Recover the amino acids of this structure.
């Protein structure tokens, strides 16, 4: 265009002018050079003079300042030397010192202060520390982008042209922007500490080459596009501006913006330079080699150049352009190869897992964090989203700082309707806000069960709890903990409140508790693990042991509120009704005290009456079946035989009156119908207000309602006729209401019994009354050598084989011992515990074990058969194999090598039965729990007795495993596939193997019902309470306490036991009887609640089998056929008289077998002759001390903490056969060398 104008003008004026001098457009309207000569050098000179002139002034100033400083420094040294030599010169002629104003050099303080204040003010203005500074910084950036936009507009015009400042609007705006930039440059210059480095900054260079040319344009009425493209370098500060505005908060977003801004600013700046030189040409070529390229074509050229594509459609022609492209390719290619993939990765990751959770209206969500792996997530989802639960209307949000791998990502996609994953950390409040933690229903924290350092893993989870509670104090948290002692740290968190649903699932505590319960009832660990896990029903047609096992596996634990039809009935009555009619097994209820505190009562007995709104704990196959207990209506469903037809009816259920509740309970006790019963007369009904005020009914009555009625009748004798009195008097002697069958209150035990139970001088229990306790002992006093152990009669004991060393993590043996020392066992019922393992490791654990009685240590190794024979492992009730070294091995298949080797070693041992026969039939050697002096009708005859063991394969063993797949190595005769799930394998079904992975299901079970965790801890820990945990957090040891009525009342709780059907009161049902009949008989007669069977594996075979392995059957149906070899799992009531009858056996040991059968014993059937029973009890009490003293001199002490007044365990033995007597005489010499097991303390 400029060339055309030039040629036209040349033709009109006929003036010969060289083409080089006439290259810019001009017109008469714009007062510009009429010759059209280029003056680009004037614009460039203004920038260069400004830059180098300022640089020269700064350097000159620094040089002068340096010279001045050197001179002043020399003078100062001379003056200081003079002051040192002549200190008198520093004083005035009159001898007075110089005043503060009389200085050699006076520096005006006002000038220094003014400069400093201006410098500080300028620094605050440009540092964005104040609101004004932030506004100024943002405004400068915005104006820089605006100036860049004006450049884009002007780039469509020629490089240099004549412009009238007063008529060109864009030039006016650009002038305004640059005036502002000049002022901001002045602020920056004043605030700069180092003026030289400030002058060389990128932003300063941008100002030098963009601001002065604008003023030159106004003066010359010319516009030169020049170096205004340098304003694009301001884009580098884009991330800083966004951070000032709190838009960028995460490191990834800041990094992404930084990369993009650097890449774009470099790209645009280089395109501007190419646009300038290509449209101008080379100066040494008289600008003849220029080409017309738009700015955006130059942008395109640089992009294809950086990407190494180079199509060739646009290229540089000038020498300057080509030279620039050579250097730009080196840097641009490196920048493109580095920045673009990183930008793409950040953008893709941000879109995938970096968003925020959007909650769905009407749908709750939970946050799961911690140890997020394929195994932990799959186990959690399989149990949480199980079909047996009600419709789970909950979304699961996983939060983890590491992106999932392909397998885990595929798992999330399969559950995309209910599962979302976000990458982040719960320690970052921003990430907590992304997952809406404040509105979440709960937060679940998973732990790494295989971590080599459990304390470090617990510390990480505790920090997660602290972070979450700090962000949202009211959020409910359920966390997994590995070590029991680390639970105490959770109590230090102010907002941690277990009453509001916060729970800590301690894997070590529960694992040890499950194993300890297996020591009391073998196979119980498997049954409990299956009950608290959601398993689908697998139907098998063949008549194999797997068929019956899997039918029981399909049962789970559920909770439901009881219908008002059960109000007023006792717990055994409701339990029987639910099992027989509703096909549900009720094992516990929730009791709320008058203060609002709730507790769980497991098989509480017939003294507990159901009230309105009682929560029950049921064993059933799915949640729909449990609804029957809530919908049951006596009027509508009384005659229904099919439990599936029991559904919600239209009956109105008003709250039952107190009179109705008491009459219903009374009628049930007397065995009559409500219509025929005359227990309550009309006058009683009329005086019900008085009765209610005198005897209010709590949520769970402490006494029987019938007893309350009788008390009312005694106060109002005229209300009942003599016939009715006689009828009620006869009711007192009925089996259901006899004193033996009712729950005993320690305060109601008469005379000597109460005094012995409440011995205020001896500490027999801990301060809570939940565990047996003894004064702390030094570990050297409980160490047994191999010879001492061989000379000690060990029978009915528990052998704990532990692998560990000085560096091993502690497994928490206290959690294993505590359930075995629960106070609901009498002292003589406690099984001695012998630890076999490294003494160095056991020393570390001993601090938590030194307050438990009947504990001893044999230093050695569980792989040594000599050590195992020394502790009579063939006579033990259970052998537990544990390892503290499992998580220190990387190879998963080798993690359980020690436990597997120890188990196989024990199973391959052979034993001589002669010693076992001798010890099992000699007086004083009967194992604990085998009380042969009790009557044949007592359920103690049904307790499991120790069988003859001649091979290690028959020794009861439970082995702890870390890796589930290693269970295939425990049993060599099973057909388990390596890929079979743990609960389907034979060792787990038989209760001989236990893995901590089965506890994963407790996370989801606790979320859906927080009472489940309380129930399982009550069952397996022996009575651990939050109060006890707080005590252990203070002292890390049990504290002894004196026996008080309150602590003794804590002993009154049921325990798990196993009943055998080949002997005892249930022997008639063992051969072909129905399980339902056994259930009802045990419940009515002894208040025992049966809930499963431990059956021989080959019991279904027609031919006899030598296999002694058993498997678990949970909650069999009513018509399930029993066999004589079955063992029945039951919840047995605590008997206060067991200890007294235990003491009375000392006196009766010399009496005949017939007289011993008539003496008082454990769980004896009550007789109507109460006077004979009382006299015998008093007689036994008078002779108890004498019997103890006579036997003391004949016995040697085994436990070193045995008190002086301890008495031996004397048990009446039934008459022996001639053959057995001959065997005993044969080994008489041997028996004289074996001392009997001694009791440590007096029985209460």
């Amino acid at each position: 265009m400029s060339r055309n104008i030039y040629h036209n003008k040349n033709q009109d004026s006929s003036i010969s002018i060289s083409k080089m001098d006439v290259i810019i457009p001009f017109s008469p309207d714009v007062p510009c050079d009429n010759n059209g000569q280029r003056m680009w050098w004037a614009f460039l000179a203004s920038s260069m003079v400004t830059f180098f002139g300022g640089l020269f002034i700064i350097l000159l100033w620094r040089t002068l300042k340096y010279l001045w400083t050197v001179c002043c420094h020399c003078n100062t040294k001379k003056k200081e030397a003079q002051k040192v030599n002549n200190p008198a010169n520093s004083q005035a002629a009159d001898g007075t010192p110089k005043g503060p104003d009389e200085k050699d050099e006076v520096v005006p303080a006002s000038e220094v202060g003014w400069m400093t204040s201006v410098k500080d003010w300028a620094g605050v203005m440009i540092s964005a520390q104040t609101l004004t500074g932030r506004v100024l910084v943002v405004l400068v950036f915005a104006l820089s982008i605006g100036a860049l936009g004006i450049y884009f507009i002007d780039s469509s015009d020629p490089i240099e042209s004549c412009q009238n400042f007063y008529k060109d609007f864009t030039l006016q705006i650009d002038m305004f922007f640059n005036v502002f930039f000049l002022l901001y440059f002045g602020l920056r210059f004043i605030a700069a500490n180092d003026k030289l480095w400030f002058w060389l900054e990128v932003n300063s260079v941008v100002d030098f080459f963009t601001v002065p040319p604008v003023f030159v344009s106004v003066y010359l009425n010319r516009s030169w596009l020049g170096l205004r493209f340098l304003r694009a370098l301001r884009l580098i500060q884009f991330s800083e501006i966004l951070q000032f505005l709190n838009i960028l908060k995460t490191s990834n977003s800041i990094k992404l913006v930084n990369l993009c801004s650097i890449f774009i600013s470099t790209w645009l700046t280089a395109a501007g330079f190419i646009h300038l030189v290509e449209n101008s040409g080379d100066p040494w070529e008289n600008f003849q080699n220029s080409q017309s390229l738009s700015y955006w074509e130059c942008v395109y050229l640089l992009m294809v150049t950086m990407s190494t594509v180079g199509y060739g459609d646009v290229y540089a022609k000038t020498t300057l352009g080509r030279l620039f492209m050579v250097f730009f390719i080196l840097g641009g290619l490196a920048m493109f190869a580095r920045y673009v993939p990183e930008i793409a990765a950040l953008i893709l990751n941000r879109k995938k897992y970096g968003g925020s959770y959007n909650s769905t209206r009407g749908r709750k969500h939970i946050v799961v964090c911690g140890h997020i792996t394929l195994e932990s997530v799959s186990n959690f989802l399989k149990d949480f989203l199980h079909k047996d639960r009600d419709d789970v209307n909950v979304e699961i949000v996983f939060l983890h700082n590491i992106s999932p791998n392909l397998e885990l990502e595929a798992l999330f996609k399969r559950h995309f309707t209910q599962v979302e994953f976000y990458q982040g950390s719960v320690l970052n409040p921003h990430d907590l806000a992304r997952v809406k933690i404040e509105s979440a229903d709960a937060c679940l924290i998973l732990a790494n069960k295989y971590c080599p350092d459990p304390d470090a893993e617990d510390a990480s989870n505790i920090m997660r709890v602290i972070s979450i509670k700090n962000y949202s104090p009211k959020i409910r948290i359920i966390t997994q903990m590995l070590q029991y002692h680390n639970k105490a740290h959770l109590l230090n968190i102010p907002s941690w409140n277990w009453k509001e649903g916060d729970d800590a699932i301690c894997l070590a505590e529960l694992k040890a508790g499950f194993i300890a319960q297996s020591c009391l009832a073998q196979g119980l660990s498997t049954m409990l693990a299956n009950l608290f896990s959601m398993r689908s029903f697998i139907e098998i047609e063949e008549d194999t042991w797997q068929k019956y096992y899997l039918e029981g596996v399909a049962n789970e634990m559920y909770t439901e509120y009881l219908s008002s039809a059960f109000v007023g009935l006792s717990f055994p009555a409701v339990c029987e009704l639910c099992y027989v009619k509703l096909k549900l097994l009720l094992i516990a209820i929730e009791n709320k005290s008058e203060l609002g505190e709730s507790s769980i009562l497991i098989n509480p007995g017939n003294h507990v009456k159901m009230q309105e709104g009682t929560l029950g704990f049921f064993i059933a196959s799915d949640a729909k079946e449990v609804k029957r207990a809530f919908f049951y209506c006596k009027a509508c469903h009384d005659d229904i035989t099919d439990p599936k037809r029991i559904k919600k009816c239209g009956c109105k259920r008003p709250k039952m009156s107190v009179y109705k509740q008491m009459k219903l309970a009374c009628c049930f006790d007397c065995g009559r119908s409500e219509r025929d019963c005359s227990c309550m007369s009309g006058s009683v009904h009329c005086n019900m207000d008085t009765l209610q005020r005198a005897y209010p009914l709590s949520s769970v009555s402490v006494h029987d309602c019938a007893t309350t009625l009788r008390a009312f009748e005694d106060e109002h004798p005229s209300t009942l006729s003599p016939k009715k009195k006689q009828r009620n008097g006869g009711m007192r002697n009925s089996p259901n209401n006899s004193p033996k069958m009712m729950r005993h209150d320690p305060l109601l035990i008469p005379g000597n019994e109460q005094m012995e139970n409440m011995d205020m001088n001896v500490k027999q229990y801990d301060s809570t009354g939940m565990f047996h306790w003894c004064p702390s002992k030094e570990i050297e006093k409980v160490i047994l050598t191999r010879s001492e152990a061989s000379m000690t009669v060990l029978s009915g004991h528990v052998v704990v084989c532990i692998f560990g060393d000085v560096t091993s993590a502690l497994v928490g043996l206290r959690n294993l011992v505590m359930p075995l020392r629960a106070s609901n066992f009498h002292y003589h019922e406690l099984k001695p515990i012998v630890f076999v393992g490294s003494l160095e490791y056991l020393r570390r654990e001993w601090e938590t074990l030194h307050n438990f009685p009947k504990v001893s240590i044999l230093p050695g190794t569980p792989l040594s058969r000599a050590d195992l024979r020394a502790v009579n492992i063939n006579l033990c009730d259970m052998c537990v194999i544990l390892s503290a070294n499992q998580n220190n091995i990387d190879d998963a298949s080798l993690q359980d090598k020690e436990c597997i080797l120890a188990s196989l070693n024990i199973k391959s041992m052979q034993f001589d039965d002669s010693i076992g026969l001798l010890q099992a039939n000699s007086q004083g050697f009967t194992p604990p729990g085998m009380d042969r002096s009790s009557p044949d009708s007592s359920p103690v005859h049904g307790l499991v007795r120790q069988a003859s063991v001649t091979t290690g394969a028959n020794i009861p063993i439970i082995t702890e495993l870390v890796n589930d797949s290693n269970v295939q190595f425990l049993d060599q005769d099973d057909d388990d596939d390596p890929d079979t799930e743990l609960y389907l394998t034979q060792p787990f079904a038989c209760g001989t193997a236990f893995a901590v992975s089965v506890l994963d299901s407790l996370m989801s079970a606790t979320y859906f019902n927080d009472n489940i965790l309380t129930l399982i801890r009550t069952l397996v820990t022996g009575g651990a309470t939050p109060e006890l945990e707080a005590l252990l957090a203070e002292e890390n040891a049990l504290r002894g306490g004196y026996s008080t009525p309150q602590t003794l009342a804590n002993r009154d709780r049921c325990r798990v036991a196993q009943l055998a059907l080949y002997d005892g009161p249930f022997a008639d049902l063992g051969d072909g009887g129905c399980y339902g009949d056994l259930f009802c008989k045990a419940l009515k007669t002894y208040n025992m609640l049966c809930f499963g069977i431990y059956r021989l594996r080959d019991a279904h075979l027609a031919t006899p089998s030598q296999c002694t392995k058993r498997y678990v059957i949970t909650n069999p149906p009513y018509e399930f056929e029993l066999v004589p070899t079955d063992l029945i799992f039951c919840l047995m009531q605590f008997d206060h008289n067991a200890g007294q009858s235990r003491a009375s056996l000392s006196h009766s040991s010399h009496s005949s077998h017939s007289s011993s059968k008539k003496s008082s014993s454990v769980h004896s059937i009550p007789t109507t002759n109460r006077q004979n029973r009382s006299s015998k009890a008093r007689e036994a009490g008078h002779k108890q001390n004498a019997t103890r003293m006579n036997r003391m001199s004949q016995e040697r002490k085994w436990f070193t903490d045995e008190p002086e007044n301890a008495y031996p365990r004397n048990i009446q033995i039934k008459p022996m056969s001639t053959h057995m007597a001959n065997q005993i005489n044969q080994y008489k010499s041997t028996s004289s060398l074996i001392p009997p097991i001694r009791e440590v303390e007096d029985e209460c």
Remarks:
- The first helix runs from residue 2 to 13.
- The longest strand covers residues 585-592.
